[in-house]
Design brief:
Elements: E1 28-31, E2 34-37, E3 45-46, E4 54-61, E5 64-71, E6 74-81, E7 84-90, E8 93-99, E9 103-107, E10 112-117, E11 121-128, H1 130-134, E12 151-155, H2 157-171, H3 178-195, H4 212-224, H5 232-238, H6 243-254, H7 258-274, H8 281-287, H9 293-304, H10 308-318
Antiparallel strand pairs: 1-2, 1-5, 3-4, 4-11, 5-10, 6-9, 6-11, 7-8, 7-10, 9-12
Length: 319
């Protein structure tokens, strides 16, 4: 079920994407003229200004009321655990629903509401910056804003799968840096444009991969900045494409998604550095672009099948 809102503020009245920060510090709303967090509780997981264009939070929330507020960004909300009743107060009306794992809200920015929950739930809350939607596709790059259709009691497995992948990446310490999370965010934006935008947009299909000179430009840049925190929009800008088309053509050219390619290159670099007896595992992990040694060890074992220390013990006697 979706509820339309003719009284909601128009996109033209809202702040334009160019005037808004692209990094979001969290899922925030406006209450009584103040911008503040949607939920009072600290999230179990948060992207915390890490991914460009999106803020992701995983919360455990008790029964209670989320008092009247206005969403300053487009908003997604998915129930992960808990089967409870809830009420939505918006535009002077009250709507009653039952939530189960998978129950999803999609709200355009400017939506004003209050929600009342009869029991505890675990939920994912997501704020989406206008530029993430506008810049997701070449077809929408000329738009000043994208408005989503309002839904209060939706179940969409595609949205759930993307958000769960984001949650898994955050829980693992984002071993590919922000690149994988931003790739997931862009995939989510493209899906919302196709399915839930007021003016829906179907992306064109490009085949054949990146031209060789553009591919070389990207691969050289990745090689020169392997230990840095690469972003999808950064790589797409090198070849003058939207993130969606860049990621698709890069995969066609290399056989790997951008984040997978970067992780493979980092692991190969780590294997080279581990053969040096003068380098510690912590030094190698930093050299290869991993900020957390435990995340490095987990990723190395996943790709190589052995721990970094185990790899050292095998390779060093040979040399």
């Amino acid at each position: 079920m979706h509820i339309t809102d003719d009284s909601r503020s128009s996109p033209q009245a809202a702040k334009s994407p160019a005037q808004s920060p692209l990094l979001l510090s969290g899922v925030e709303v406006r209450r009584e003229g103040r911008v503040e967090p949607l939920l009072r509780t600290d999230p179990k997981l948060s992207s915390a200004a890490h991914w460009s264009g999106i803020a992701f939070e995983d919360h455990s929330v008790p029964a209670g009321v989320i008092h009247r507020h206005e969403h300053v960004e487009s908003f997604l909300h998915v129930v992960l655990e808990g089967s409870v009743r809830y009420e939505v107060l918006t535009r002077g009306k009250t709507f009653k629903f039952s939530a189960n794992p998978g129950t999803t809200f999609i709200l355009p920015r400017g939506t004003v509401d209050e929600t009342r929950w009869s029991g505890s739930t675990q939920r994912i809350a997501v704020a989406i910056h206008p530029t993430l939607l506008v810049n997701a596709l070449d077809e929408t790059a000329h738009e000043s804003d994208i408005e989503l259709i309002e839904h209060w009691n939706l179940n969409d497995r595609n949205i759930m799968s993307v958000l769960l992948a984001m949650r898994t990446d955050l829980d693992a310490g984002s071993p590919a840096g922000r690149l994988y999370g931003e790739s997931l965010a862009n995939a989510l934006a493209v899906y919302l444009l196709k399915r839930y935008a007021v003016k829906q947009c179907a992306p064109s299909v490009y085949r054949g991969g990146l031209p060789s000179y553009r591919l070389k430009r990207v691969l050289d840049y990745i090689g020169d900045n392997l230990c840095g925190d690469l972003s999808l929009s950064q790589l797409a800008a090198l070849v003058g494409m939207s993130p969606h088309y860049f990621a698709e053509l890069f995969r066609q050219s290399t056989g790997s998604a951008p984040h997978q390619y970067v992780l493979l290159r980092r692991i190969e670099l780590a294997k080279e550095r581990l053969s040096d007896p003068n380098r510690s595992i912590i030094e190698v992990s930093l050299d290869a672009g991993f900020q957390n040694p435990s995340h490095f060890a987990r990723t190395f074992r996943k790709f190589v099948g052995i721990s970094p220390s185990g790899f050292q013990s095998v390779i060093r006697p040979i040399r």
